[in-house]
Structures are given as structure tokens and as C-alpha cells.
Amino acid sequence: MHAPGTSIGRVTQTLHADAVRLLTGWRPPADAAADWTQTMELLEQGPRVMGKPHPDGHVTASAIIVSHDRTRILLCLHGRHDIWCQLGGHLEPEDGDLAAAALREATEESGIAGLVVDPVPVDVDVHHVNCAGSLNRHHDVIFLVHAPADAVAQVSEESHELGWFPPDALPSPLGTDTARVVRNAMARLGWAT
Description:
Layout: H1 7-24, H2 33-43, E1 58-66, E2 73-78, E3 84-85, E4 87-90, H3 98-110, E5 116-117, E6 123-131, E7 134-146, E8 159-165, H4 178-188
């Protein structure tokens, strides 16, 4: 990790402060409470947990993209893991906060311009992943992202495929907690699944 005095170190400190503020002031859905607790414990280790490869895991950001009419969500068939999951990934120095990171990842991985992010998380998911050549944990903060009416998704190098799915008819195989994350995102919209 970069020294605290460098501009990258200050960016990491800013992202860490945002994560602490955001997650301290937010209460997770009941089924995400254990993951939220683990993430809060990770954040106690300081700004170094905001980037890879931190040995105890690191914070990531992702997005559940919902169609303009709120009837479908966009998932990707992940290029390395061959599972259907939300779009997202590692934080970058240019990200102003976690919501901005989720929006950047959603835009890069979907090819959709004009996405709008809800700055309040819908879920926090901790999952094991092979990252930077070793098994690690992603503490993924997930945001709801709204697509414009004319959204046309384009597959990026991160995915094998993208697909729009009704929340009650998700594809298989799903990532470990993807169904829960979708359920919590749709609950935010008042959609009963």
C-alpha cells in the first residue's frame, strides 16, 4: 500500500473515511447483518483495507442495475468465475466515494451511459474470491443503479455475457449471495420477491 503522505494514500484515506461514515450510519437488511459486522471489523484496521492485496480482505463496490421500468435487473456471467452476479470490483484512486466506485464499475462493465446511482447501499456481501493470485475476501458494498430508458448493455472484457432478468427468474449458476442481494435491492424499490 502507498504511504499515507502520497496522493494515493490520501485518496485511500478518503475512501476509508467514506466507507466508515456510510456504513456506520446505515443499517443492513437482517440477512446481511453478519456481513456488515465483518466489514465494520475490517474497517477498524484502517485505510489499507481499501485496496488489494490486503491479507484479511478488502472493500469493493458493486451495483445492481435495474431497468428503467423496474422490472428487470442486469447481471453478468463473470469472466473468471463463470457465475451470474452483479457488476462491480476494486476501488480506484479516481473514485470519490464508494457510490462513485459502484457507478464507475457499472458503467465500465455494462457499457451503459447515463446510469444513476442511489448513494445509500442496499447490501454488504462478504465472499471468498481468488484475487491477485491468492484466496482473499471481498467486502462488497452494493448500490442500486438505475438504467435510462434507452439502455443497451455491451459485454466488456470482465464478462462472458450480460443479461436482463426478472428478479423472480434469475439465471444459474448464481454467485453465493446474488439472490439475496437482488432481493434486498428490489425491496428498496418496493418490489416483493
